[in-house]
Amino acid sequence: GRLEAVTQQMGYHPQYLDSFLKTQHYLMHMDGPLPFDCRHYIAIMAAARHQCRYLVNLHVLQFLRAGGDPQWLRGLEFIPPKLRNLNEINKILAHRPWLITKEHIEKLLKISEWSWSLAELVHAVVLLAHCHALASFVFGCGCEQDEGLGGRGSLKPLSLGTQCFCEATAGNSYGQELLRINRKRSLDSCMELDSLRERMQRIHVETEGRDEMRLLQQDREEGEGQGAEGQCSDLSAGLSPLADTDGEVTGATNLACYMQDPDFGYQDFARRDEDQTQVFRVQDYSWEDHGFSLVNRLYSDIGHLLDEKFRMVDGLQSSAMAKRQGCEPSVFKRGIWNYIHCMFGIRYDDYDYAEVNQLLERMLKVYIKTVTCYPEKTNSEMFDRFWKQFKHSEKVHVNLLILEARMQAELLYALQAITQYMI
């Protein structure tokens, strides 16, 4: 039940790692509305949506450690209907969160033998979003591939003992040692990025803008006729696949018992012929003004931990890399963040989406979209190849932005649906 590969990667940014571990520990091991075995089973269901054996195996062990019924591990047919009823919201949040409605919430909360309370549902929603987003990080940094293939050599585990990840929190000697060792790495996370700097500077003098729908339209045109897998074709061309589709490494066959409707996946948010799709306007419902207070009221203190984590990843942009290049760190960070939210139909009225195409090279955009929307199609060679001028710690930084932007997107849709139900 350990997260060594994940903590090693996040350890390049020790302040973020500390915040992440506190949130993970609180979600899984501290007082809350859900029983401990159910928390880990929900995590299994969430990770299975992306065929993430790394996280599934982790939570299977912790599920049993928490006293969970081994029969549940035979699949969804063997779990209580109350848990099984989470299937729909798990599936939608993982792949197309904009489809969540107050009717989904109402169905789970309706009075019956298997009804959920609001507090339980909020806990479950945070768990689902957390594990979906963490699966993106696991695949994006190669943790899944290294675990499944016995190690490619790109991940070199720290020799800091074998304590459970939940013990590596602030104040714990293991956590402090991990932070100390990795702090030196994070201080050396800068390098020359002339082309990026030039593109950033041009933004200040170029005012022509396009809206985010045009950005999405361009992405679709670039991948037209290729389907979902085509989005990563440029990166994966000529690379050996992670495993055959029926192979054991992907775990697709092994994990099938933990999900229904396995063919349900990500689709581009708003096609121009689908007028019924509503753009999510952050000005109308935001984390800061709406989501934070709701989640904190129904699941005490988790809002503060999540907010700290969102702020921590935003603060990482104040790095020596950007300062030395003479550009605003927030510009690059916001470009990635808003591009990810754009793929989920979330719009910022005060943002010029032309910046995305100026800041992000196409190969980087393909990488971000793959890790965000269908991380199971990522392989570790992609991580090695994207933005070779970036150091490893800076690539991890990009994956942390993906993790947090994706998690916040899922939470915004789910919490808005809960708010609409309550109203």
From TrEMBL:
Catalytic activity: a hydroperoxide + L-cysteinyl-[protein] = S-hydroxy-L-cysteinyl-[protein] + an alcohol
Family named by the database record: Belongs to the sestrin family.
Keywords annotated in UniProt: Cytoplasm, Oxidoreductase
Compartmental location: Cytoplasm
PANTHER family: P53 REGULATED PA26 NUCLEAR PROTEIN SESTRIN (PTHR12474), SESTRIN 3 (PTHR12474:SF1)
Name used for this protein in its record: SESN3 protein
SUPFAM superfamilies tied to this protein: AhpD-like
GO biological processes: cellular response to L-leucine; cellular response to leucine starvation; negative regulation of TORC1 signaling; positive regulation of macroautophagy; regulation of response to reactive oxygen species
Domain of life: Eukaryota
InterPro entries named among the record's database cross-references: AhpD-like, Sestrin
